[in-house]
Backbone:
């Protein structure tokens, strides 16, 4: 079965053709990073306009690179939640029009479920059940994946997501957008023991996260040094902050594994590309005899291949959408 996936939840316009949820026949992404870099972050109105301009060409290119026409597609899968509402609406309305004109079934896909499904492409042997840490700019979740379309949230952030904390800290250190990527690179040349940052926890909810205080801590440190005319060693600062954030993620994730008895640990989302997070979880899993899965680096960020992958399993589960499908800025992953 061949699924045409469409993604437009933030600042990447993407289309892909995926076969049987695991084999990528094509994957095309039109990135807006260079434009949003001018503003230090994503500008929703600009993102929506660029999606409108790019989505037709991106979809046509995906079909051409797969070597098939729309008649060779079995269903259309589209990201409808969560994300920037204007950006989502571009993809949803385009997919609805394509489905209406072609007669193909329309499959709604939750964005976080797609990130998890990126692992099915990289690791064809991976099957539920497993425990997944989904970490991105807007989300930090520990999810029990009981089946392809049955998920249970065990823990989540109470305030900022880990990716947002990385981006805001990087910006305060003078790094360009997207900050998290640059911080990870700079941190590799720094001393992670140079600065001590707090390891926040949530009272009564040991699997939940809180990164707001950690983010504020590094920003205050930078501002205080600036007011005193002091220069902080950025590589050391980046390495110490990265260690603190990753420490929180790994601690809660491994605690969830012990509580649930999970033997398969999976990471997903943009922050799953973080080099320290990958190496730390690889080490912990090796020490405990757990299997560790992570997506290929090119599948960590937003893309449509992951939408096509999850769309396949949503289709098999009977999920269909009509012309009344709407975009949702927020929606729990266990309700998608």
Residues:
């Amino acid at each position: 079965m061949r699924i045409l996936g469409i993604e437009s939840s933030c600042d990447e316009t993407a289309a892909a053709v995926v076969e049987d949820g695991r084999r990528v026949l094509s994957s095309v992404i039109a990135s807006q990073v260079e434009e949003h870099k001018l503003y230090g972050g994503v500008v929703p109105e600009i993102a929506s306009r660029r999606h409108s301009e790019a989505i037709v060409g991106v979809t046509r290119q995906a079909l051409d690179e797969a070597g098939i026409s729309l008649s060779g597609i079995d269903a259309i899968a589209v990201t409808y939640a969560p994300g920037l509402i204007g950006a989502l609406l571009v993809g949803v309305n385009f997919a609805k029009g394509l489905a209406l004109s072609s007669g193909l079934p329309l499959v709604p896909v939750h964005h976080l479920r797609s990130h998890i499904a990126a692992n099915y492409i990289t690791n064809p042997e991976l099957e539920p059940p497993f425990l997944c840490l989904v970490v991105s700019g807007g989300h930090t979740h520990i999810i029990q994946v009981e089946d392809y379309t049955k998920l249970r949230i065990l823990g989540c952030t109470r305030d900022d997501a880990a990716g947002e904390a990385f981006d805001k800290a990087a910006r305060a250190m003078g790094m360009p957008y997207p900050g998290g990527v640059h911080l990870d690179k700079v941190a590799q040349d720094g001393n992670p023991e140079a600065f001590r940052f707090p390891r926040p926890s949530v009272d009564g909810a040991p699997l939940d996260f809180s990164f707001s205080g950690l983010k504020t801590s590094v920003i205050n440190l930078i501002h205080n040094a600036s007011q005193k005319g002091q220069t902080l060693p950025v590589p050391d600062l980046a390495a110490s902050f990265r260690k603190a954030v990753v420490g929180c993620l790994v601690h809660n994730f491994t605690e969830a594994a012990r509580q649930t008895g999970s033997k398969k640990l999976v990471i997903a989302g943009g922050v799953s590309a973080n080099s320290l997070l990958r190496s730390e979880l690889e080490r912990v899993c090796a020490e405990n005899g757990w299997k560790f899965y992570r997506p290929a680096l090119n599948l960590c960020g937003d893309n449509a291949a992951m939408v096509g992958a999850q769309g396949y399993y949503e289709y098999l589960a009977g999920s269909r959408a009509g012309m009344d499908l709407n975009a949702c800025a927020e929606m729990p992953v266990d309700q998608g």
User: Anything to note?
Assistant: Strands lie at 2-7, 12-19, 23-31, 75-81, 106-110, 130-135, 140-147, 150-156, 264-268, 291-293. The chain has a mean pLDDT of 96. The CA atoms of residues 14 and 224 lie 42 Å apart. The two ends are 22 Å apart (CA to CA).
